[in-house]
From TrEMBL:
Domain GH3 C-terminal: 455-570
Leader peptide range in chain numbering: none
GO molecular function terms attached to this record: acid-amino acid ligase activity
Family as reported in the entry's similarity comment: Belongs to the IAA-amido conjugating enzyme family.
One Pfam family, short name: GH3_C
Any single Gene Ontology cellular-component annotation: cytoplasm
Keywords of the record: Ligase
Alphabetical list of InterPro entries matching this protein: GH3 (IPR004993), GH3_C (IPR055378), GH3_M (IPR055377)
Protein name as it appears in the record: GH3 family
Positions of the GH3 middle domain: 359-440
UniProt superkingdom: Eukaryota
Amino acid sequence: METVEAGHDDVIGWFEHVSENACKVQSETLRRILELNSGVEYLRKWLGTVDVEKMDDYTLETLFTSLVPIVSHADLDPYIQRIADGETSPLLTQEPITVLSLSSGTTEGRQKYVPFTRHSAQTTLQIFRLSAAYRSRFYPIREGGRILEFIYAGKEFKTLGGLTVGTATTHYYASEEFKTKQETTKSFTCSPQEVISGGDFGQCTYCHLLLGLHYSSQVEFVASAFSYTIVQAFSFFEEIWREICADIKEGNLSSRITLPKMRKAVLTLIRPNPSLASHIEEVCTELESNLGWLGLIPKLWPNAKFISSIMTGSMLPYLNKLRHYAGGLPLVSADYGSTESWIGVNVDPNLPPEDVSFAVIPTFSYFEFIPLYRRQNQSDICSDGDFVEEKPVPLSQVKLGQEYELVLTTFTGLYRYRLGDVVEVTGFHKGTPKLSFIYRRKLILTINIDKNTEKDLQRVVDKASQLLSQTTRAEVVDFTSHADVIARPGHYVIYWEIRGEAEDKALEECCREMDTAFVDYGYVVSRRMNSIGPLELRVVERGTFGKVAERCVGKCGGLNQFKTPRCTTNSVMLNILDDSTIKRFRSSAYV
Ligand code: AMP
């Protein structure tokens, strides 16, 4: 078998070298970032006019970490806004920024922009090549094969100052680097650009599945950014497989595909193929009637070697279902990164997702680590879920088994920026730490690529409860929430206890108001594409939160210290809430 080995040794050789010398490489990375940008307004404010080039590494790192403050997005937001408004003087980077990415999370209830530069697309290509190289050591693939990739580019728009805004993946799928990746890894996505950028989740998924089956004998692996998408795509397939079979048989395309460009592009690729259609029909009938769709993927894509996507962190709840569809096919957990910067690569693709950690790539950004210590006496039902922090340390000083929050200094103009992710150092790859992802700090609601914090939820509930008190004689007494990841599609459930009388119509409006008030871009996009279902408002009977408090106090003592958890996965608490639910509403937004 001819496999895609060429170039793999080079990229692995490069990574082994930089990880061996990770501490030195980190110093050089910081130096490069500062040399490139020392004159920008933000750095001048903190560092003055120091001559970076004349300083030795130690002095430079010490000066940087003692003078430049640790910040969050809100602190850099005014600079990013000025860039978005068209200001061209060097504010954060010397090189002009012409593209902004929408990162997950919000700042003061607004969508969060971060700068995107050529460096961002180049590092994406680099980590994909590196990751493909490590994967091929365990699961070699055939040259010229195809990938059944469930990928979706969102829409782009312009800011006041004419800068292009979109998600980092949208920029990447439109970039030269995406084409280069297919050519250098010699694996091609089944779907054309018109499907990837179609913008309608249902129509795109249908075409991804149809083309995946059209090319089924050539498909070497199945992939998506996050595993939630694969699970959703195949549960959709369980419903529509007959329609796809009919299309394959006749070389036709279902009338559910209404986007003209997408229709045209798909129709030029497919031909009537009755024998493939009857094979799929036979397999699906067996899967549906006897197997409960166990092993769907290898049965329909017999040459697939593995499944690849992010399976860690908030994707863990979908692993069971993914394993069910995978029927024994290896699950390869994809790399760790963010819109702000790529962070680490999975150098052990053979490990199950539960055990995967990511080797930090020391050339991509300058990384610092805030040591975190869990507060004592936490339990799921009544924890405030946070940590005691210590002074940040550089990569050279991280300790095995310690938990940290990551701080990034990037080539794209973020300096000592708190990412909010909690990671644990679980080992070392040569000289670079391997991080296991724990969770996004303060994050409470997440289903897919959406990320909402307690503050976001509070703001959303405030808005809707104002509406309630304006339109009725009722008020919200207490609330909590739950991300229902079992329902398909998953959705947010918000529980309200109210005092006073409220008509159903008013509560329906409040439910809709909350759905539209979550402005995190991951949520908005997922709602528009219906990969997250309509928000649900459940009204519980009076006194329910009192019962919750009693339960909680029983566990951790002291009613005066009790705070209602604003989000819960605790089954005892959910049982109390569900048993007390008297009304349910589903949002009518995004239809
Ligand atoms: P975004 O900036 O919207 O692309 O979201 C980036 C965030 O997604 C990271 O900060 C993490 O919280 C999460 N994330 C990215 N990659 C992984 C991974 N491999 N495992 C777990 N969580 C991840």
